[in-house]
Each structure stands twice: as structure tokens, then as C-alpha cells.
Amino acid sequence: MALTQADVLAGLKEIVEEVAGIPAASIELDKNFSDDLEVDSLSMVEVVVASEERFGVKIPDDQVTELKTVGDAVNFIVKASA
Amino acid sequence: MSAQRRVVVTGLGATTPVGGDASSTWAALLAGKSGVRTLAEDWANTIPVNFAARVAVDPSEVMERVELRKLDRSEAFAVIASREAWKDAGSPEVDNERLGVVIASGIGGVTTLLDQYDVLKEKGARSVSPYTVPMLMPNGPAAHVGLEFKARAGVHTPVSACASGAEAIGYAFEMIRNNRADVIISGGVEAAIHALPMAGFAAMKALSTRSDAPERASRPYDLDRDGFVLGEGGGVLILEEYEHAKARGAKIYCEIAGQGLTSDGFHIAAPDPDGIGVQRAIKTALANAGISTKDVVHLNAHATSTPAGDVAEANALRLALGADADHVAVSATKSMTGHLLGGAGAIESVFLVKAIQDRLAPPTINIENLDPAVTVDVVRDKPRALPSGDIAALNDSFGFGGHNVVLVFKSVD
Fold first, then answer.
1. Complex ipTM, two decimals?
2. Residue A80, C-beta contacts closer than 8 angstroms, at least 6 positions apart
């Protein structure tokens, strides 16, 4: 079953808050993981693995570098779940 | 030849089983309080020893969750104690290229290693934390402190089991003396209270098994001592070149005047019963410091409460100092803190600095019957006043592998 963009954004906010300590309220689609949310390359690995578990999708390593913003990640996950 | 660079202590930090900082730890020691408790974890009842000395203030009480999740517990101890020590030193202004870090650990991030191995087995490789390696590496505590304070003169981690913390301070001392740095954040930490290391120490019969009275279990020099009690935490000292400290008007606690390092070449774990390596370390340290045996008034002993080690060390002190051992007040603070392995030499150096400042030797608790083989003057139950005037004090630290480190601290006018 495909996930909605709202479902994924809500879940991703919780994951980023857990990993990087950024309050969920300040996590928006246009935020850049490294520049705005202090998610460095190692933390990004945690975000990716937690997202795979939570949303039941695979995010291949070669795609991770393409996920610059929260919106990029949400779109990728929504498509992957379809 | 220009005059020898002198090294002084200008800041202290600690997180220990009896206090969350250096001053509360020192107050608890003077009051003779034990930090040893029965462990609450389920695994504690699956191994032969179910007690240890956890830190009095858990890192989660003083650090943010997000910061902590990327740090091994030993790294958290290093960061906590370093922040305190740095602040205590007055947050010195120093050229980053003249600022170093030397922080040791005996075992490194062993709880991270074991926890992540559980993750690997239960959930697979992809779930292993990307922070596993930076958290388990033994240089992690030093590296994190180096990052926080942007130290660029060198970040180092000597490893010599239970002598590591003292060796780190000795290494830092040499860095300043040899003009590699002006300020060093130095010390030692350990966070190894976990089923595996405890089972390993228990298998060596190194741990006390006095489960019915854990607070009474660590009893250096007592006739019925039956092993050490594992503790956790760490201590940090800010070492600074004397002229640098004076120029900025820093509070100067005391001077580190010298060190002696030797090795036994005897056994992987047992101490040389004649304590020859320890005697050599004491003599070397005093010569290195240019101090006479007459000036030594206090020893914070390694004394871990093992049957063989305590007597071997006491004999070595007696043989190294001769009749001058009579005026050395010997304190075994592991009777209260437990044994912090790589953190031990560091917290005990913090205690020596406080002892010189307050002119008080802390007590050794839990001696019911002093072992008659111990022929040194042990400070029992209550603190003892140290003389006024110029004094010197020693810190002994020894480690599995036959490592002997002796540091010499002395008062500054």
C-alpha cells in the first residue's frame, strides 16, 4: 500500500528528531539535512536505516547522496512504497 | 641551556562513583563514603559478582540525549570531566596549536562493542550504528575532547591497563616540558561495567565476591581483602606551563614535578611480589622530579584490594623510601571509589591535588584488621592533616602487563 506524503513526513520528523535532536516542528520539506538539520553523513546513515525499518522500503546506498532535503527523502519513500 | 619548563595544575574535573564533580567527590572521600552498590541490571545475577561502583551522577543527567547517543559512556565521562576542568581553569586563552589532549582508557568503548555485536546478531549488519567505530575506539574519549576544545598540538591515548590514566598525565607532563604544548587536557576514563568484562575479571579471581556487603567489599590492606571492585567514571586535570599560567593570573593548585615509568617483565597479570619494578618507578620519579625522599608526605596508593598487589606495593614503598616511608601518609581511595581501571590514575591524581591544596590525606575505609604484612602508615577511617610548608606527594598506578607509573606532585609557593 502506498504511503501518503503526510504519513512519511510525520514519520521522518520523528526519526530526525530522534537522531539529530531537531524539534519536529522545525522540520519541513525544504530543509536540507546537512545544512539546516545538522544531520551529517554518519547521522544520515541512521536516518536511512530507521526509515527503511519504519516504512518498509529499501533506500539503496547510491540513492542516499541524492536525498539532500527532507522533501527529496519523502518523495523517494512515497515512490518506493508504491 | 635554558631553564627547564615547569608544569602546574590549573584545573580539575571528575565524575566518579562518589560525586558528579571534583569537589563533591573530594567531600565524599573525606567523609569516608563508599560508591559501591548492588547492580540493578538483570545480567548482574548471571555472573559471579553482582556489584560495582557506578558513577554518582549519570551522564544523562548532565548531557543532552542527542549528544550522548553518539558517545560511548567512556567518551561521555571524558567530555563531562573536561568541561568541568576547563571551566575550573578559567577557560584559558591558548593558541590552539599549543593546546593538547592526552586522555586514556584501559579498555575503550567495550559496552558499545558488545551492544553493537548484539545488534549485528539480532538485526543484521545494516542496523549496526554508523557511530560504532568512533564510539569503541580507545582514543575516542581523547578525540572527542580534542574536537570540543579544538586542540591541535596533539591528541593522544596511552594504553597500559590500570596504569593508563596516570600514564596519560605523565605523557601530558612530558609534552609541556618538552615544549610541544603550553596547555594539556589530561586524564583517564573507564566505562566497563558490563557482563563480559566483569565475567572476565571474575574468571581471573580478581574481583571481590563479597556480595552480602558491597560497600564493605573494597578493603585495601585488610587481612580479609578478596579482590577489587570495578568502578566507572573519570578524572581530568588541566596541565599548564608555569609561566603561561602565571602570565594569565591562573589559580595554580600545585606542580607536577616528575614521573617514573618502568615495567616488570614478570607476568601478564600478577605483580612482581618483590615490587622491584615499582621501587624503580618510585626512585626514578623522585630523581626525575629532583625531590628527596624526605619531602614525600603522602601517597595515593594503587592498592586495589587484591591479596598480592597491596602488600607488594607497600613493600616497594618501604624499600624505595627506607625510613622516610615512616612520614608518608598512605591512602587507598579505591576503598571508596572502587577501581576505575584506566580512570584510576586520573581520579587519584585529582585527589592528590586536592590533598595538597587542603593539606589533608583522605581515608582508607573498610580495614577491620590491618594485614600485618603491610609496613607502611595507612590513613584509616578519617582524613589526616598533612604538614604545612613545601610538600610532595606520589601517585602510584600499575596495570596488567606489568606497567608501573609513579607521578610526583609538589606544592607551589
1. 0.87
2. A55, A57, A58, A59
Chain B: nearest CA to A18, how far in angstroms? 7
What is the Cα–Cα distance from B189 to B235, expressed in whole angstroms?
A: 7
Strand B392-399 with B384-385, pairing:
unpaired
* CA-wise closest residue to B26 among B226, B253, B282, B245: B253
Q: What beta strand segments (E) does B130-253 contain?
A: 155-156, 183-190, 233-241
DSSP state of B339: B
Cβ proximity of B382 and B365 under 8 Å? no
Hey, are the CB atoms on A46 and B66 less than 8 Å from each other? Answer: no
Residue B267 sits at φ, ψ, to 5 deg, of: -160, 155
Cα–Cα distance measured from residue B303 to residue B220, given in angstroms and rounded to the nearest whole number? 6
**Distance, CA of B220 to CA of B218 (rounded, Å):** 6
Tens-digit pLDDT string for chain B (413 aa)? 468 999 999 999 999 999 999 999 999 999 999 999 999 999 999 999 999 999 999 999 999 999 999 999 999 999 999 999 999 999 999 999 999 999 999 999 999 999 999 999 999 999 999 999 999 999 999 999 999 999 999 999 999 999 999 999 999 999 999 999 999 999 999 999 999 999 999 999 999 999 999 999 999 999 999 999 999 999 999 999 999 999 999 999 999 999 999 999 999 998 888 899 999 999 999 999 999 999 999 999 999 999 999 999 999 999 999 999 999 999 999 999 999 999 999 999 999 999 999 999 999 999 999 999 999 999 999 999 999 999 999 999 999 999 999 999 999 98
Give chain A's contact residues with B (Cβ, < 8 Å).
19-21, 42-43, 45-46, 49, 52-53
Minimal Cα distance from A61: which residue of B?
Answer: B126
